[in-house]
Write a structure and sequence with these properties.
heterodimer; A: 160 residues; alpha+beta; DNA polymerase, domain 1; 5-stranded mixed sheet; 5 helices; B: 756 residues; Aldehyde Oxidoreductase, domain 4; 7-stranded mixed sheet
Chain lengths: 160, 756
C-alpha cells in the first residue's frame, strides 16, 4: 500500500512523516517520530495509555489514524515539561506522591490530567475520578494518582 | 520527607522521590516495545481459534511468497525430545500436534513491517480437526471429560482418577472427625472463583536476535531476565550462556511476566531470517487469550466451631484448573487457606486439573486469594450464625509466633494479631452504616520468598555507590534498595544509584516474584555494602598503621574503635574513595546466595459496601488495608502495594472473569469487556502499615507485594451478605448475579433491611 505524506505539529515542532493509511496516530508517533512516551496498552481506546491532545482535545491516539494528523497541533507527554526541562506541576506531584509504580500508564494519566485541569482548575475528587475513568492503572489502585492531581491543581491555583 | 515511625534510622522509613521517577513522568523510560535495533524485522503470531483441535496441516507457502516476508516458523523449527516443564514451555510457546486452547500459537512470521507481518500471518493456512473441549474445572474433573493430555498425570495421582487430573495432594494434622465432634456448629459449603488476568497495562514485548553461531541477545519486558534466558535456551536448544537478556522497564507483571510466551518465537524467527533482530509486541487480545491468567477454582470447605468461636477442625478440598498444562497453584491455595488459624485438626485435599484454557501463570500470591475466599467466607457465615464479631473470632483463633502452621512449619515472628488489633482500632470500624450498606472483614496470608540472588555494589571514585541488582523494578525496588544501601553506608540517598542489570552482569537471579525484591536483593545489597565497608575500614587501618579490627564504620567514615586504638580523625568515604587507586584498587562488595530468614506477611482488610437493590451493583464506600510489612523501607511504595493489591482483589470479587462461549472461545479478550476497576469505581484506599520487624532481615523487611490481593475476595462477599442478606459463593459478584439473588430472596421486589 503506498504511503501518504503528512505534515503536522508535535509539541510545537513541525514534523513530516510517511504513513501507511492503516497506521494509527500512535503508530506514527512511536514508529515514525521516535516519540515512544505514548504507550499502547490495548489498541481499542479502553486504557488511555496513548492519550495525547489534538488541537487541544484529549484523544486516544490508538483510535485516530496517522493521516488524520495532517495540519493538526498535537501535544504528547514529551512536550509536557518546559524547554529547560522544568517539570509541569503534575509531573512533579506524581513523583512526590508516589503516584506511579511501574510507570507505564503514567504518560497517559499525565496528559489526561493536564487536559482536565485546563478545563477545570478546581476539580472535586469525584470529578477527577470520572475524568480519569478512561485511564487504566493496574498498580496503584488510583489513590495516589487522584491525590497527586488534586495537589497539583491546588498548587496551580496558587492555593497550595 | 516524612518519617514513618521507625525513628532509629536516618533514611529507612522516609519517602524520597524514586530514582526512576523523572524518566517515568517524561516518557523517557524505555519499556518492552520502545526499543528498536538496526535491520529489525517485525513478528506476528498465528493463533488457534479453537479450544481443542488436532493440527492436520500448516501451509505457509503463500505467506513465504509475500515480498518482505523474511521467515516463518512452526513447531517443526523447534528441537524435539524435551521433557517435563521444558516440554510444557515449548508446547505453550508453539503448539505441536494439537492446539490446546483458543489463542494457542501455531505459527509465526517475520517481515519488514508490523502491518506486513500481520498480512503474512493471515496468509498462513492451518487445517484443524476440531476436538471436544472442556472449560470449567468441575466439568474438566469428570471421568468422562475430553482427555486433554493423556499421560500428563504425575506419580501423585491415584490409579483410576479422571483423565484430566494431573496432580493430587493431601496433607494435614490431627483428627478432623474428632475435631468436628467437639464443635457446636459444623458447616460445609462450596465456593468458586473464576480465572482472572494480571492485567498489567504493558502487553508483552521483546526484540530477539539469534545468529547461526548460536549467540543471541534479547531486550524484553520481564520480571526475571535469567528465567527468560533459561527458558528460551531450553525451548530452542541453545546454550544459556550464549543468550544475553536485557530487561526493559516493566509495565507491570504481578507474576505474569515470570515466564515466556512469544519470546522464543522472536529468537526462532531471527535465526530463520539470517540473524536479523525480530520485534514482537502482543496485542491486548493476545495478552488475554494467550498469556497467564490465574487458575479458576472449585472449593469445598468444612469447619467446626464452638459457641465461643474456637475453631475445632478445618477441612478443605480444592479443585483448580490452570489451563492445558500442569501447574494450577492448588498447593499454595491449600497452604494459605487456613494459615491464619491455629488448628489442632486440619486436612487438605487438592486436585490440579487440565482444561482447554491458556497456561496459567503466577498472579500475586498465587492460589492464596482463592483459598481465602472459601475459608474466610465460611468463617464469616459461621460467626454470623453464632452471633460473634468476625474480628474477635479471628483474634481468638489467630496464629502467633511458635504456633504450628496449618500447612506444617512452625511460625517465627508474625504479625497477624497486630493487624487484627490495628483494624479493630481504626476509625473506619466506627463509621455508621445506612440502608443497603454492609461491612466485611477478612484476613490474608503470603509466605514471601528469598530465592537465588546475586548483587554487586561498587564505591565510585567520589565516594558514591553503584548497586547492580537482578530484580526488575516494578513498584519502587530501586528506591528501597538505595535507601538501605545509603543508610548502611552513611551517605545520602541521592549518592546511591541502583541499576537493574542484564544477564551478563551478575550470577543467576530469580525474578522479582514472591515479594522478594526488597527482602532478597535488599538483604544482598546490604551484605555487599558491609563487605565494602569492611574493606574501607581495612584501607584506613593500613594508612593509620593499626589493626583493622580496631576500626569501625560510623556515619560514612572509618574511625578508631576507641582512643586506645590510636588517635586519628575519622576518614570519610570520600577520602578513602579518592585514593583507592593507590591503596589497593577498586572497592566493591558482592553477594551470591539464597537469602534466608524470610518473614511471612499477614493482612486484615475491612470493607464497607452499598448495594443498589434495583441493579445489584456494589459500590465500595470505604476500604481499609492493614498489613504487617516487617518494616516499611519506603512507606509510600508500601502503601502503594497495599492499595494496588486491594484494588486487584476488588476487581476479582466484583467484576473480572474469563468468559467463554459454548465454542470454548474467550468472549471478553479486550479491556472493554474484561473490565478492571477504574478510578470512578473506587474510594481512597486507607492503609495502616503494621511493623513487626522480621529478624531475618537487617532492616526487618518481610516483603509486601502479595498479601494485599488476598482478603478482598471474601471481605467483599462478607460485606455484601451484611448489606443484603445474600451469601454469594461464586465470584465475581457481578450486578446481574447479585440482583438475581436479591430478587429470588424477595420475589415481591427488593425490600432490603437496614444493615445496622
Amino acid at each position: 500500500m503506498s504511503k501518504i505524506h503528512v505534515t503536522t505539529t508535535v509539541n510545537g515542532d513541525e514534523v513530516e512523516f510517511l504513513t501507511d493509511p492503516r497506521e494509527t496516530l500512535l503508530d506514527c508517533l512511536r514508529d515514525h517520530l521516535d516519540l515512544t512516551g505514548s504507550k499502547e496498552g490495548c489498541g481499542t481506546g479502553d486504557c488511555g495509555a496513548c492519550s495525547v491532545t489534538v488541537d487541544g482535545t484529549l484523544v486516544s491516539s490508538c483510535l485516530m489514524l496517522g493521516v488524520e494528523a495532517e495540519g493538526k497541533k498535537i501535544e504528547t507527554i514529551e512536550g509536557m515539561a518546559g524547554k529547560d526541562g522544568e517539570l509541569h506541576p503534575l509531573q512533579r506531584k506524581f513523583i512526590e506522591h508516589a503516584a506511579l509504580q511501574c510507570g507505564f500508564c503514567t504518560p497517559g494519566f499525565l496528559v489526561a490530567s493536564k487536559a482536565l485541569l485546563e478545563k477545570n482548575p478546581d476539580p472535586t475528587e469525584t470529578e477527577v475520578r470520572y475524568w480519569l475513568a478512561g485511564n487504566l492503572c493496574r498498580c496503584t489502585g488510583y489513590d495516589k494518582i487522584v491525590r497527586a492531581v488534586m495537589d497539583a491543581a491546588a498548587e496551580m491555583r496558587g492555593a497550595a | 520527607m516524612t518519617k514513618n515511625g521507625s525513628s532509629e534510622f536516618r533514611l529507612v522509613g522516609t519517602r524520597p522521590n524514586r530514582p526512576d521517577g523523572l524518566d517515568k513522568v517524561t516518557g523517557r523510560a524505555r519499556y518492552g516495545a520502545d526499543a528498536s535495533m538496526p535491520g529489525m524485522l517485525h513478528g506476528a503470531v498465528v493463533r488457534s481459534p479453537h479450544a481443542h483441535a488436532r493440527i492436520v496441516k500448516i501451509d505457509t507457502s503463500k505467506a513465504e511468497a509475500l515480498p518482505g516476508v523474511k521467515g516463518v516458523v512452526t513447531r517443526a523449527d523447534f528441537p524435539t525430545g524435551l521433557t517435563g516443564e521444558d516440554w510444557d514451555l515449548q508446547e505453550n510457546t508453539m503448539a505441536g500436534e494439537k492446539a490446546l486452547y483458543d489463542g494457542h500459537a501455531v505459527a509465526a512470521v517475520a517481515a519488514t513491517s508490523p502491518l506486513l507481518a500481520q498480512e503474512a500471518a493471515r496468509l498462513i493456512e492451518v487445517e484443524y480437526e476440531v476436538l471436544p473441549h472442556v472449560i470449567d474445572v468441575d466439568d474438566a474433573i469428570k471421568p468422562d471429560a475430553p482427555a486433554i493430555r493423556p499421560g500428563a498425570a504425575d506419580h501423585s495421582v491415584p490409579e483410576g482418577s479422571p483423565p484430566n487430573v494431573v496432580r493430587y495432594l493431601e496433607f494435614g494434622h490431627g483428627d478432623i472427625e474428632a475435631g468436628f465432634a467437639e464443635a457446636d456448629l459444623v458447616m460445609e459449603n462450596t465456593y468458586k472463583t473464576e480465572a482472572t488476568h494480571q492485567g498489567y497495562i504493558e502487553p508483552h514485548a521483546c526484540v530477539g536476535q539469534l545468529g547461526a553461531d548460536g549467540k543471541g541477545e534479547m531486550w524484553v519486558c520481564t520480571q526475571g531476565q535469567w528465567y527468560i534466558r533459561r527458558m528460551c535456551a531450553a525451548v530452542l536448544g541453545i546454550e544459556a550462556a550464549q543468550l544475553r537478556v536485557t530487561p526493559s522497564e516493566i509495565g507491570g507483571g504481578f507474576g505474569g511476566k515470570t515466564t515466556i510466551f512469544m519470546e522464543p518465537l522472536s529468537l526462532a524467527l531471527s535465526r530463520k531470517a539470517g540473524g536479523k533482530p525480530v520485534k514482537i509486541v502482543m496485542s491486548r487480545s493476545e495478552v488475554l487469550r494467550a498469556t497467564g491468567p490465574t487458575a479458576s477454582a472449585s472449593m469445598d470447605v468444612k469447619i467446626g466451631m464452638k459457641k465461643d468461636g474456637t475453631i475445632t477442625a478445618g477441612y478443605a478440598n480444592f479443585r483448580m484448573q490452570g489451563g492445558a498444562f500442569p501447574g494450577a497453584p492448588v498447593d499454595m491455595a491449600l497452604y494459605c487457606a487456613f494459615a491464619g488459624y491455629k488448628l489442632a485438626n486440619v486436612k487438605h485435599v487438592g486436585y490440579d486439573v487440565l482444561a482447554n484454557r491458556p497456561k496459567c501463570a503466577a498472579y500475586r500470591a498465587p492460589g492464596s486469594p482463592m483459598g481465602a475466599f472459601a475459608v474466610e467466607s465460611l468463617v464469616d457465615e459461621m460467626a454470623r450464625k453464632l452471633g460473634l464479631d468476625p474480628l474477635d473470632v479471628r483474634l481468638k483463633n489467630a496464629v502467633r509466633e511458635g504456633d504450628k502452621a496449618s500447612y506444617g512449619p512452625t511460625f517465627g515472628s508474625i504479625g497477624l494479631v497486630e493487624t487484627l488489633e490495628a483494624a479493630k482500632a481504626h476509625p473506619n470500624l466506627k463509621a455508621p452504616l445506612g440502608p443497603n450498606q454492609g461491612r466485611g472483614v477478612a484476613c490474608g496470608y503470603w509466605f514471601n520468598h528469598g530465592g537465588e540472588t546475586s548483587v554487586s555494589m561498587a564505591i565510585g571514585e567520589d565516594g558514591t555507590a553503584t548497586v547492580s541488582v537482578g530484580t526488575p523494578d516494578i513498584g519502587g525496588g530501586r528506591a528501597s534498595i538505595a535507601l538501605m544501601v545509603a543508610e548502611t553506608l552513611g551517605i545520602d540517598y541521592d549518592d546511591v544509584r541502583v541499576n537493574v542489570v542484564e544477564t551478563g552482569a551478575l550470577g543467576v537471579n530469580e525474578p522479582t516474584h514472591g515479594s522478594r525484591a526488597t527482602f532478597a536483593s535488599g538483604k544482598a545489597a546490604v551484605e555487599s555494602t558491609n563487605q565494602a565497608i569492611k574493606e574501607m575500614c581495612r584501607r584506613a587501618a593500613a594508612e593509620w598503621g593499626i589493626d583493622p579490627e580496631a576500626v569501625e564504620w560510623v556515619n560514612g567514615a572509618a574511625q578508631p574503635t576507641s582512643s586506645n586504638a590510636g588517635k586519628f580523625a575519622p576518614m570519610t568515604i570520600k577520602e578513602i574513595a579518592a585514593k583507592m587507586g593507590s591503596t589497593g584498587g577498586p572497592i566493591s562488595g558482592h553477594y551470591e546466595g539464597l537469602p534466608s530468614g524470610v518473614g511471612a506477611s499477614f493482612g486484615t482488610h475491612v470493607v464497607d459496601v452499598e448495594v443498589d437493590p434495583e441493579t445489584g451493583r456494589t459500590t465500595i464506600l470505604r476500604y481499609l488495608v492493614v498489613q504487617d510489612a516487617g518494616r516499611a523501607i519506603h512507606p509510600a511504595y508500601v502503601e502503594g502495594q497495599y492499595q494496588g493489591g486491594a484494588v486487584q482483589g476488588i476487581g476479582w470479587a466484583l467484576n473480572e472473569a474469563y468468559i467463554y462461549g459454548e465454542d470454548g472461545r474467550l468472549q471478553n479478550p479486550i479491556f472493554l469487556d474484561y473490565r478492571v476497576p477504574v478510578a470512578s469505581d473506587l474510594p481512597m484506599i486507607d492503609t495502616v502499615i503494621v511493623e513487626v520487624p522480621n529478624p531475618g532481615h537487617p532492616y526487618g523487611v518481610r516483603g509486601v507485594g502479595e498479601t494485599g490481593i488476598t482478603p478482598p475476595l471474601p471481605a467483599i462477599a462478607n460485606a455484601i451478605e451484611h448489606a443484603t442478606g445474600q451469601r454469594i459463593r461464586h465470584l465475581p459478584i457481578s450486578p446481574p448475579k447479585l440482583l438475581k439473588a436479591i430478587k429470588s430472596a424477595a420475589p415481591s421486589g427488593p425490600t432490603l433491611q437496614a444493615a445496622e
